[in-house]
Specification:
Length: 204
């Protein structure tokens, strides 16, 4: 009789410890996802974007500027894999930042527009720039614990092209748009490069 009670007590203690460990892991993992992950949203589906690993990535810091009743400057940064190269354009393409892969191919490009003059938001940009290409799908991109978002995702499946358009502001509060373009949706590596840039992007 004593042995049975001892066994039952041990089982109860071990079961309690196991439940506490499981609860701790669930709280910890949930917190991590809320702080770091982003997801695509539309009316039909949600998909979580995984978290980047700091060991595989490095940080790119840059600056773009424009003139409109004075000079306006935007400082920015993003993460990209260490086996890639970032190449800034010149002249009219000085606000373009091309991602070059190991095969010297450029599928993904980050570029900027200053919106202190015409005042476009992300949706305005999409509706005006893609006015002749109406066959596209728009989704929102945001952090898990945010109630609003300033990022739009646009895909042209028939053209195999996708865009991320994000509303940002510089230190003086002037509005800019950051646009990430991927010209090969079917290439998984290019998709991941575009996602890495937009989810780690910071502007000020």
């Amino acid at each position: 009789m004593g042995n049975i009670r001892t066994k039952n007590t041990k089982i109860l203690i071990l079961g309690t410890i196991f439940i506490l460990i499981v609860l701790f892991l669930l709280v910890f993992l949930n917190k991590g996802l809320k702080e770091k992950a982003r997801k695509f949203l539309d009316n039909k589906k949600e998909s979580i974007v995984d978290v980047v690993s700091g060991q595989e990535y490095q940080k790119y810091s840059g600056q773009v500027s424009t003139y409109f009743e004075g000079k306006w400057i935007l400082n920015f940064s993003f993460l990209y894999k260490k086996d890639l190269k970032i190449s800034q354009g010149t002249g009219n393409e000085s606000k373009w930042f091309k991602v070059i892969d190991q095969n010297k191919k450029n599928n993904v490009t980050l570029y900027f527009t200053y919106e202190g003059a015409r005042g476009w938001n992300a949706e305005d940009y999409i509706n005006n720039i893609f006015i002749d290409n109406k066959d596209f799908k728009i989704q929102e991109v945001k952090f898990l614990d945010e109630s609003t978002t300033t990022i739009k995702y646009v895909s042209f499946e028939d053209k195999n092209i996708e865009y991320f358009v994000e509303e940002i502001k510089n230190e003086k509060g002037e509005p800019w748009l950051a646009i990430v373009e991927n010209i090969d949706i079917k290439d998984e590596a290019s998709q991941n490069i575009a996602i890495d840039i937009i989810r780690s992007f910071e502007g000020k």
